[in-house]
Design brief:
The chain has about 325 residues and is an alpha+beta fold. It is about 30% helix and about 25% strand. It is built from 7 helices and 13 strands. The strands form 3 sheets. A 7-stranded mixed barrel has the order 2-3-7-6-5-11-8. A two-stranded antiparallel sheet has the order 9-10. Strand 9 and strand 10 form a beta hairpin. The protein starts with a strand and ends in a 23-residue tail after the last helix.
Length: about 325
Amino acid sequence: MNETRNQARVEQESVPVTQEELEEIARYSRRRLTAEEVYTFPLVLCDNDLDRDYECFTDEALEKLAGLFCGKTGIFDHDPRGEKQTARIYRCRVETEEGRLNHRGEPYKALRAWAYMVRTAANADLILEIEGGIKKEVSVGCAVAGSYCSVCGADRRENPCGHHPGKKYGGVLCYTLLDNPTDAYEWSFVAVPAQPAAGVTKSRSVRRALCLTPERALAEMEKGELHLDAVSAEGLRRHIALLERQSEEAGRYRRSLCEEIRRSALLAQPELEPALLEKGMTALSVGELETLGQLMRRQAERRFAPTVQTAPPPKDPGNDNSPFCI
């Protein structure tokens, strides 16, 4: 089994506890609690987007995790000791955020949960820290049966393929798809979660970037988290795809320049060490490589100047005895 820990987001939303919620909480408490005794808060356990480890859950995995996480306890730093228990999930479901896309250009989906804790003097400070945004990042511990390469589909545990997450192969980013979860252990408050975009939000309102140009969207995204609508996200994907194609074409042209320089250098400077030439070309720009290539070609042409094979050999003036011929 593969233990997976993903960041979650706790949302600061102080809402009254409804009778329906109290009924759901009663499934896990020994007696029915009152609204005054209970503190509840929503959080996002995981989603179908990439995390810092270049892993992401499939949509099917999120649906299955929604059932597995109901009733699971919340702790600190994945420490399984009983005194670290702080809250328990009483409701969990998969939600789609309209207009937001994940890294694959598919609808963004998140596993949203609601947790409760009993209000006591001991956890009053923790509740205040949650409300104040101090305790906000969380991660989950679960087991999955499937861990697949996004490039070739191989199961990384049973059939390692050699593709490394985070690298590109033929312009395709490699990452790991987590599927078929078999168990959910716990969720924890942590300081450094796996997913960089997670964090406390003051409300469910989301900042959206509408009708941005790709360049403006990239600049805005560098400043922090930015959610794009479908049109802007599609434009950004096309812009990135164009840049990747241009990068591949530039790479092919650079390699052809280097190969031409190597051939010319063998003729023009046969004493030049190949390793030294390679090191020098690595540091040069495309324009500098073009200049070096022209220089090497001219030197090779001067050293091996072409001659016309059908031309007669030149006469030697010193051996010209034509005046003495009868």
